[in-house]
Structures are given as structure tokens and as C-alpha cells.
Design brief:
heterodimer; A: 153 residues; alpha+beta; seven-stranded antiparallel beta sheet; 7 strands; 30% helix; B: 462 residues; six-stranded antiparallel beta sheet; 28% strand
Chain lengths: 153, 462
Amino acid sequence: MIPSAIIDLLQTGVSVIVGTRDAAFMPECTRAWGIRLGKDRRSVTIFLTEAVSGKTLQNLRENGLVAVSCTRPTDHVACQIKGRVRTIRPSDRQDQTHRRNWKREFIGEIAAIGVPAALGEAWITEPALAVEIDVTDVFHQTPGPGTGEKVSS
Amino acid sequence: MKPGALTIEDLWPCLQGMIPAALSTCSKDGVPNVTYVSQIYYVDGGHVALSHQFFNKTHRNVREHPYACAMMLDPRTLQAYRLQLRFDHSETAGPLFESMSLQLQAIASHSGMTNVFRLLAADVYAVMGLERIEGFTSLPTPPLSELPSRLFVAEDLERLRLISERLNCCDTLGELLETALQLLDERLGFRHTIILLTDESNATLTAIASRGYPENGAGSEIGFGDGLIGMVARSQRALHLSAIDHSLRYARAVRDRAQASGNTAAVCREIPLPGLSGTSCQVGVPLVTRGRLIGVLVVESLEPLAFMPREDSLLTIIAAQLATGIEQLSRDMDDAAPAAPVRSEPVPSSGASPRTRHFCFFHADDCVFVDGEYLIRNVPGRILWRLLTQHRDQGRTEFTNRELRMDPWLGLPEVKDNLESRLILLRKRLEQKCPDIRLIPRGRGRFALETEGAITLSEKAG
């Protein structure tokens, strides 16, 4: 079960980065275009484009292991979710609506720290694949002491 | 690296810490980890550094399994770049660490987090791969030619910075002169160099330090207006002679012949200026501070095209700092403030068995000979004579700059007496002509006369 403090964080315009590794344990990282909490509160869905995240998607298909870091740019509140891929599928209309809302909120966040909104608007977030992840652990990742500790439920 | 391939230098906008970078690693048992890093620091064309402030998962992972992948954004366009990295080593001291640490401390002090934000180490990673991520943004990437790269300092500027810092640390005139010539050689490749200082009273320049010649030439004199060096002194402008005229070598050869043939009347009381016999290229730069000529810096090379405008510019910049330093340290040392005696480094014995040295002083031109050979003259000659006679008559071995300045017989001017440079000159002539007699610094404004064998003294009118 994802802790409630984290649920609140995930419903804001967080920056989402994704870490995976291949069969030789070579790390790969990429950026996801949004994150959505699963109805069961045990899973999340992230959105990746094949162009930007080809190697990540390949790793996820091969071994399913994933780390997702979500940070709110305005206050650096952050968590890291670890888990395993449940499904990878083309995103549907509902996903698309969610992603648009996330993008609007995220651009609002980065605009608040001085990044022109037009730069965020230019990101190519379509067509995206929806990657559903079973969450195994959640860690605090806000910079400072206590970072890296598991978030209690 | 393929021609035209992206280099780490091309990513300078991403390396300013304006947008945090993503970094993923993997534990030895295959669990991926991803985090933000506030800044990726440029180290050199093949390396970057990350700050290690907390003992976190990234820190543990790369020590178990040294690979990492970073994603950086260009703050101008939010275009993404991916770097494949391999952890190389960790630094806890040195310029990279100091500069990263200082930056972190400054941020920490602004936010009242001085005790929390502390750099534990600079983790250096080798850059194994670098790619621009296509399909990330619809904005065009500014062409590389339009990127004014102020992040990556030209190598010469970096060298000048180092030289400037080192010269600024010198405490004594002697140290300043030696350090300057050493850095010119080791950092900028000027292998043959001479520094001459001005004696305004008789419009001459006296060589006080040199590097890259068999003889140090300390004490050799050149009149204002004589040759390249004299011309530089008179005009107070840098002068550059490439492919030096045959006649200059001819003149030098004539002097060499005169010395070799024993026709020494003209040259016996002159110390030859160090010089390369086949020199092709010379640059003389005036050492001027606040409009006053302090001396001249000379560099020489056997290569006809060794000195170009770049070299002239570098030398001019260094000469300006050197002139100020020489003026300041000459003045400071002349203060001769009372100070606790400081033990100098033990001086190695000359190795020769103790011998009797005979010194003779010629009153006509204040000239000192040792064992029949010219040693030194003028003010340094009188200083030496004063030290030797006081040593003989009173058994003294310790002296101060202050008492020399007060001694009317030495005839030092009341202001700008250049006593320290005269002592350096005397020290060097002794090193060269009779190394068993030494002047050893004993802290600020003090020195000792050390002798290994017996000394006899005589005086002549002329």
C-alpha cells in the first residue's frame, strides 16, 4: 500500500524520472511524462515515449525492475518508488486526459521556479506507452538527512 | 571520438546546475536506483564530477558496481542529453574538491544549512558515452557555433591563473624571482629566462635571476639603451626580435673571443650576461609598476618562430604582476622589522675540503676579488666587504638589513635602496664563485654569514 503522504505528492505536478538496468546491470535513465496512482493504491502507471525511452522500455520488457523518482520542483519534496512492471500498453483516452492535466501542472511548477512555460510545452509527450508498475517499496528522497529511508505506511 | 561527435564541452549549458540532472545506478544484485543530482560538474574532456554529500544509495551502488547513467537538460531549450558514466575515483582534497565544496558552502550559508550541506567528496566519473536524445522537444537546438563557451577556460588563462596565484603566495623577493622563472619554464615553456633589475643611480640593469643557462650570470650589467634589453628599459615597451640578426651573434662572438684570448682588460670586471649561443628569438618585456621601471624580463629561444603574439601577451601579463611583486617585496624586506630568528634549511656543504679564501677590495671601484678572480662590485661589493671585515674584527656572523641601511659607508639611498635585491645578487655570486662562503636568510630582515674555511682580507687603492 502506498503511504498517504506519498499519494498526495503523486497527485501534484511532479517531475518523474525512471531508472532501469539491462541484463549486464548497465543502468539507464529516462524521463516519464506523468505518473498516475492505481485504484488499488498498490500500483502506479507512468508514461513513456518510445523515441526517448527505447532502451528503458527494452529493459522493462526483459526484467521488469524499475525505480521511479518523483520530485515536486517548487519545494524538492521527493520520493522514490521501486517495483516491477505489471503491463506495458499503448495509452488510452483516459490516460491521455490524465497526462495533459499532469503536464499542465508540471509546467506550472517549473514556471514557478523560473523556467519559461513555452519550453515545457515543446516537450514531445505523444504517442506514449502506459507502463503499469506493482509498487514494492517507497523511499523518502527529499534532500537532507533521512533521505533514502523507507516511507512507513 | 568520431569527428563532429558531441563532446562534453558542447554540453556546457547543462553543466551550470540550473536544472537538476537525473542519475541512475544499479546495486550489485541488480536493483536499479534513480535520483536527482543538483549539478554535474565539468572536470575535463573525459570526466565529470558529482557531489557526495550524504551516504546514499547512489554512493553505495557505484562503489559496488561502478556504472551510472545521467540525463541532463539544456536550460535554454529543455533538450535532453544522456551520459553513460563509470565511477573512477573520489577526491577529498585538491582544486576540484575545494571549488565544489566552496560552492556548496555558499549555497548552504544562504539557506542556513551550513552543517547539513557539506561536501564529503567529489566523485569523479569517466564519460563513456554521450548522446543527444532525439524526439524529446520540438524546439531546435542552438547551433554549437553560437554557444559562447565561458565555462571552459582557455588553457592559457588557466595557466595564467595558476601562475598568478603562486606568485601572490611568495613571501620574499628571492622566492618570487625563482618561482616566476620556474613557472615560466614549467607552465608556459619559456626555457631560457633572465630577470634584470634597474639601478636608477647609474642607469643600468643588473641580472639578478636566470634559468636555463649553464652560468647564472647574476651581477652582469647592461646600460639603458644597450641592445634589446637596454632598449626595452629605455622605451619601457616590450620588444620582440625574431630570427635575430647575424650581427647580434657576431657581437657576442667578439666578446667571447676577447675573453678566450686573454685580452681581459675590457671584460675582466664584467660578468657575461647569460645567453644562448645560437639564439634565434628574444623577447624583452619591461617590468613596470605605476610608471616606474623596476627591471626587464628576457626570454630566449633557439627556435626562430618560438615567440608569437600569444607569448608576448602572456609575458606582458606576468611581467605586470612580477613588477608589482618585486617592488612590494623589496620594500617590505627593507623594513627589517625585528623578528625572532628563524632557522633556515640546513645548507649542504660544498663538498670541497675547507680552504683559505683570499678576498681583496679595490677602493677605486668598490670591487671585490676572491682568489684573484672578480667577484662583485659597487654596493654589493661594499656590503660584502663590510660583512667580511666585521666577521674578521669582531667575529660576527649574524647581520640585519637595518644595520646595513644605517651604515653610511655603504651609501644606500634613503628610499628605494633595493637592499634585498643586492643581497640576493651577492648571495648568488658567492654561490657561483666561492660556495664555501654563504649568506643564509634567518627570517625577515636578518641573515647569517657562514664560512667553511679560513678567510684573509687585503685592500688596494685601485
